[in-house]
Design a protein that fits this description.
It comes from marine metagenome. It contains 10 helices and 2 strands. It is an all-alpha fold. It has a domain of about 160 residues. The radius of gyration is 31 Å and the shape is rod-shaped. The two termini are about 50 Å apart. About 5% of the residues have low confidence.
Length: about 260
């Protein structure tokens, strides 16, 4: 992602002269488009950078390092941090708990990508807005030029001189249309690629988290029941899981006592 942004910056430096002329066609609208593009780039970079504290917290928790208490509380993994708490012993989760955690984290990841997708659509809209804006200016200017021609006179030079001056406004309108379309579509293409990279980083983070939680999951007897068999009631299953967890805690206490 960083290399792509650097490549865009280098390309912009080499094309600074034509890009500056295109920008001057409509400073106001093109400035808004570039501002939205800049904010979209910053937001997509933030989407990737916020994953690093979450990964750090997971690594500290997995390895039971002393820096866990000093680490910043995760924001994306806040439900999991609350559920796991400060437990340092061997962890085990039920399949229902693991699925609940993963569903909550997946929902948060999806919500974080909504603004990036909206920004891409906003750039396309601004580009089309500039296109129609410029075309409207062009049509109106051409109508004024045609209405102002006086072909009944004898001075043909004056007629062509007036026509030359009158065509300046339609050309300015075409410049607005093409420049806004250029910046809007190019900006949406850039943000689309950055959003794709951010989505891949979040998907990789989610998959690694799912694999780790799967290693901690304890399947209950109800989860292993065949399709045609009746499963035990929910309260019985919860009681069995609580009993198994209590036995595990007792076993760990005895092991620590022997040591």
């Amino acid at each position: 992602m960083v290399l792509f942004i650097l490549a865009l910056a280098v390309m912009g430096i080499f094309l600074i002269s034509p890009l500056e002329r295109a920008f001057q066609a409509n400073v106001f609208l093109n400035g808004i488009i570039l501002g939205v593009l800049f904010l979209g780039i910053i937001y997509n970079l933030r989407q990737v950078l916020v994953l690093f504290p979450e990964v750090t917290w997971i690594e500290l928790f997995r390895k039971n390092l002393p820096g866990l208490s000093l680490a910043r509380n995760p924001r994306l993994l806040a439900p999991m941090a609350t559920m796991l708490g400060d437990r340092k012993d061997t962890l085990s989760l039920s399949a229902q708990s693991m699925r609940s955690l993963l569903d909550g984290i997946a929902s948060r990841l999806d919500e974080s990508r909504d603004l990036s997708r909206y920004t891409i659509g906003l750039l396309i809209f601004l580009g089309l807005l500039g296109t129609f804006w410029g075309l409207l200016e062009t049509v109106g200017s051409i109508r004024n030029v045609i209405g102002g021609l006086n072909v009944g006179g004898d001075d043909v030079t004056a007629v062509f001189s007036n026509l030359k001056r009158g065509l300046t406004a339609p050309l300015d309108g075409m410049g607005t249309a093409f420049s806004s379309s250029l910046f809007g579509l190019a900006g949406s293409l850039v943000l689309g690629f950055l959003d794709l990279q951010a989505s891949q980083a979040q998907n990789r983070f989610y998959n690694d988290l799912e694999e780790w939680l799967s290693s901690l999951t304890r399947l209950s007897s109800g989860a292993l029941t065949a399709d045609g068999e009746a499963s035990v009631p929910a309260y019985v299953q919860a009681l069995l899981e609580q009993t198994a967890e209590s036995l595990e805690n007792l076993q760990r206490t005895l092991v620590r006592g022997e040591e």
